[in-house]
Amino acid sequence: MRIISIGEILWDVIGGNEYLGGAPFNLCAHLVRLGHQPLFVSAVGCDDRGRRTLERAEELGIDTQYVNLTQQAPTGISEVTLNEGGHGEHRLPRPAAYDFVQLTEEQRVTLAEKQPAWLCYGTLAQMEPHPRLLTRQLMEENSNAKRFYDINLRHNSWTSDLVNDLCREADAIKLNEEEASVLSGVFDLPTHPVDRFCEMASDRFDFDVVCVTRGPDGCALWRNGEYVESPGFIVSVGDTVGSGDAFSAALLHGLQTDWALCEIAQFANRVGALVASRSGATPAWTREEAMAL
User: What is the CATH number of domain 2-291?
Assistant: First the structure.
């Protein structure tokens, strides 16, 4: 399937190492590993990191024709501090190149002609006017594409009004337990039980799918009134950077192929756990390795 993913591309700076990442980009890398054709929309700076970004993206099999070069800001970075559990805390210098993403009319027409099945976005890039405007244009021009919102809240990189708008534009949403708690407080939704949160969130925003990830405890998945909880897989954690994006790729794979809900949840847990067992946001992995967990 073809999937538009719009948003940030950046280098995760972890210790003395740099790993190419950004949730919308990571999603594309993991979709490629599942045999799909992501259409990545972003921007990089006219700098060394920008050059290395495009080279690495092509190595991962990601088409870069919708990634524009800009002189208005440097290629994005995220300074990541890992805690004892391998979970990353991010500091995001802005403005960054991805804040100045743009497509020509010809490029937007070409995207629409590919008839994408999904349009995927997060919160971070949508804070700025260029990505927000372009996302709305792509929604209008690809009206048959379902919309997947990975909420992915970062410190000082969201507002309640923006999240409200992005939720109302989505058909499916993925968030973790902490983000579910934030949404519960902002929009007066019940935090527990999780199935009640999913149902009420769907009632409020008209979601078809709500997925709450629970770290090592797996995930909860709701689809049109059906609900499952699926346990996680125990792995030795390398770092969790990118594992949620791998989970999202597997989730979209299962939703598009219309698997049973329990199969979708278990497969997404497998892929997310496998990526968490390795360093960096886009490590090499295979579906066979995920199924062997």
Answer: 3.40.1190.20
